Amino acid sequence: MPSPILSLLPQTLDVIQDPHQVAKLSKDYYHFSPILTPQLDDKVAELVVRPSTEAEVLQVAKACVTTKTPLTVRGAGTGNYGQCIPLEGGVILDLSKLNQVKWVKPGIACVQAGAKLAAIDKITREQGWEIRMAPSTYRTATIGGFIGGGSGGIGSITYGQLADRGNLTAVRVVTMENEPHILELRGDQVQKVNHAYGTNGIITELEIPLGPAYPWAEVIVTFNDFMTAARFGYTLGEADGIIKKLISIHAWPIPSYFAALQDVLPERQAAALLMIAESSLESFNELVKEFGGTVTYQKTAEQAKKGAALAEFTWNHTTLHARNVDPSLTYLQTLFPYDTALKLVEHMYQHFGDEVMMHLEFFRVHGQVCPAALQLMRYTTEERLNEIIRYHETQGAFIANPHTYILEDGGRKQINETQVAFKAKVDPYGLLNPGKMRGWLERTQS
Predict the structure, then answer these.
(1) Which CATH superfamily is domain 216-399 in?
(2) Can you name the CATH fold of 101-212+414-445?
């Protein structure tokens, strides 16, 4: 039976009803989690709509409100937690056609939500600027999806996380009220929709700050043991005079999963995968000598344009490569406290051994260099997974649980009352990405 919403959509709108395409566009990389897989495998939308203008987004929003049809916003579907999977069917709003870079000024750009990060950089670099941070899915991810579902990434060693003040300047948001309209949020107001999984507004346009575009050399340094590699990573993060974009540290056997890099990853060695400004390489090499590391791979920025990008072996791409070799592997997301000695990192590394393989990404938290971990885990049972999570938490590590699709439970474990209140205003019927915001679920159930 045709969806009742179809009669309310303009015939000029790009609507996808083919079941195979709709099923494909209803998914992300939730299958990284053996917990999420059975929960989300059967969740699909009724249809997909691809607007090409903000006016068309308003039309879709109006039709959904009129028919009380759930609407789930989608970027490129590169998330890992089911952020864009429609739990209650309805409409997928695919924003990939809203992909213009509207303007670029020194240090800032205005872009539509469906613009790919790599496409934005291609334009901004002509003026000497680039996106401050990006996920390892940089080539395919969209800026709206990154803001809605991401938290940081390559570049966070310099600029911190997306939620930090100043890392998002402004957004335009379409509401889901009886008469949908456009709101512009600026400054701290952007936090109402930043990392909200599209549960409380449809982001159509953003103003994003940019950083200076350096020629980035790609470097791999190997070490005889993991903790030396980890301490090297921390020291490099603290070396403010060395300009860097990526500090990714991998305990053995993780390097063995990187098929394309096997010639430069010696057996049983820990590896640091790095992006360093070419102008800083001389000072960087002195630091490598200080820690007894060996440079096994180095590409100039020009050479790095060819072949696999080193960044695509880091952050969540590390998990992807490992699962290509062993699909039984899953992962954790851990933030270790600031500690110059890395004592808790060392304890967890020794305590779990190869059951929880250590993978660190260094970034800045309130100006301090901290190790975040995306450990690979040999999954056995849900009970053992929860036991490992509890052990980390009791020892003082924070777990951002990647095995839940609930916004708060996978993040700070606290309800963001500001975001819930904003949802009550702009999405009073709870139609946007239903089932993902615990604060809203508890509000409507009470």
Answers:
(1) FAD-linked oxidase, cap domain/gating helix (3.40.462.40)
(2) 3.30.465
Burial degree of 107 (CB within 10 A; 0-12, 13-18, 19+) = middle
Kindly give, in sequence order, each residue whose CB lies less than 8 Å from that of residue 325, ignoring residues fewer than 6 positions away: 256, 257, 259
What CATH number should be reported for the domain whose range is 4-94? 3.30.43.10
pLDDT digits (tens, 9 = 90+) for 389-435: 999 999 999 999 999 999 998 877 788 999 999 999 999 999 999 99
CA 114 from centre of chain: 15
Instruction: Provide the pLDDT for residue 410.
Output: 84
What is the separation, in whole angstroms, between the first and last Cα of the chain? 35
Q: What residues contact 106, with CB distance under 8 A and at least 6 apart?
A: 127, 129
CA–CA dist 72, 436 (Å, integer) = 11
Q: What is the DSSP string of 281-305?
A: HHHHHHHHHHTT-EEEEEE-TTGGG
Q: Where along the chain do its domains lie?
A: 4-94, 101-212+414-445, 216-399
The residues, any chain, with a CB within 8 Å of residue 42's CB and separated by 6 or more, are: none
